[in-house]
Design goal:
single chain, six-stranded parallel beta sheet, Dihydrodipicolinate Reductase, domain 2, eight-stranded mixed beta sheet, 16 strands, 22% strand, alpha/beta, 2 domains
Length: 363
């Protein structure tokens, strides 16, 4: 059964417009709800769908809505819009972050009207993160997890907790100590998440006029166990497994180090799980992000047909909201930046002889 979808907002909402730009599948873009800017008009014209500027003028056959509008925690009206949509009997996928109380009220309204309200933290649906989560769960099934070491930009601090929820199998119980004062762009939080000792370094900075930019990175996460550590090098990969560096005691008496016993010594000291090179940012916004968006929309559509209880399915996201809030209180207010746009470099921009580097590995 085909579901009619309306996308609200044309900032990040453009990712959902790209996701729905496919002829097959159970989801059909039925319109855009926005304020009527030139960008929104251009998006509607490109997609060949009507542009609505009033939620009350949406047609009655809308089944799902994406609310890609800032929620109250960021000074926007996204949660109010989401509740107006669920009150009309529309299932809603809302982009985070959300305050705990915002989400709790939205879930109550959704349940009252027998529809779903789900939160998208987006990155948990991106394929390299899904690969990292699969590997983390496999590692936890073999050995006890000993530590988490994570770094992120403030813009995606909320989303980090959803990735940790997925990778660790939950967040509770959690606790955080006071942040270590900034010694550069990053502040450090220590604590425990699901009982695992956790260190989080956050670039606690926001640009005054361009808050979505100026992060040094999105997410970098390492989860360690007795046998080694698993690293999501960046949000979009690669995912790297590094066995524990351990030379057995019997090798101390060997005439040569490379004659030490132990089959694990023959394994790669680091190995990519999946592609060893991450995609370009053009490919990320053009393919990975739309694929992730479509994956979550399909999941919402399936849940809506199955009659899933919105409160039951919302408990995990309520935990994400609360853990993020508790950590943010410890982190404190961000430093405000007013600097020029950065100049990103490629590896080739460093004028390194990449061919010589490759040749040296072979000799």
């Amino acid at each position: 059964m085909t579901a009619n979808v309306v996308v609200c907002g044309t900032g990040f909402g453009r990712v959902y417009l790209s996701a729905l730009d496919r002829p097959d599948g159970p989801l059909r873009l039925a319109g855009i709800l926005a304020r009527g800017s030139s960008r929104s008009q251009a998006c509607a014209e490109r997609a060949g769908v009507p542009l609505f500027t009033d939620v009350d003028r949406l047609p009655d056959d809308v089944d799902l809505a994406v609310v890609a509008v800032y929620a109250g925690v960021n000074g926007g009206g996204g949660s109010e819009l989401a509740r107006r949509l669920t009150s009309r009997g529309v299932h809603v996928l809302q982009e985070g972050p959300l305050h705990h109380d915002e989400l709790a009220e939205s879930l109550r309204v959704a349940r009252r009207h027998r529809v779903l309200h789900q939160v998208s933290t987006h990155y948990g649906q991106v394929e390299p993160v899904r690969r990292f989560v699969r590997a983390a769960r496999a590692l936890a099934g073999r050995q006890r997890l000993l530590y988490v070491d994570a770094t992120c930009g403030l813009q995606v601090f909320y989303h980090l907790f959803d990735i940790l929820r997925l990778a660790l199998g939950g967040l509770r119980p959690w606790s955080f100590d006071e942040a270590v004062p900034r010694g550069g762009p990053f502040c450090t939080l220590t604590g425990r998440v699901r009982g695992v000792p956790t260190t989080i370094r956050v670039q606690n900075q926001l640009h005054v006029s361009d808050p979505d930019n100026h992060a040094h990175l999105l997410h970098r996460i390492t989860i360690g166990a007795e046998g080694g550590n698993l690293t999501l090098l960046n949000t979009h990969g690669p995912v790297v497994w590094s066995p524990r560096p351990h030379f057995p005691e019997q090798g101390r008496t060997a005439a040569r180090l490379d004659e030490a016993p132990g089959g694990h010594l023959d394994e790669p000291s680091a190995e990519a799980y999946g592609p060893a090179v991450a995609p370009s940012y053009r490919e990320i916004v053009g393919r990975l992000w739309p694929d992730a968006a479509y994956r979550h929309l399909e999941s919402l559509h399936r849940d809506s047909r199955a009659g899933t209880d919105p409160l039951a399915s919302g408990q995990a996201q309520l935990a994400v909201c609360q853990a993020w809030r508790d950590a943010s209180v410890r982190l404190g207010e961000p430093e405000l930046l007013d600097v020029a746009a950065p100049q990103p470099l490629s590896l080739r921009d460093l004028d390194l002889d990449l061919e010589t580097a490759a040749d040296s590995e072979e000799t």
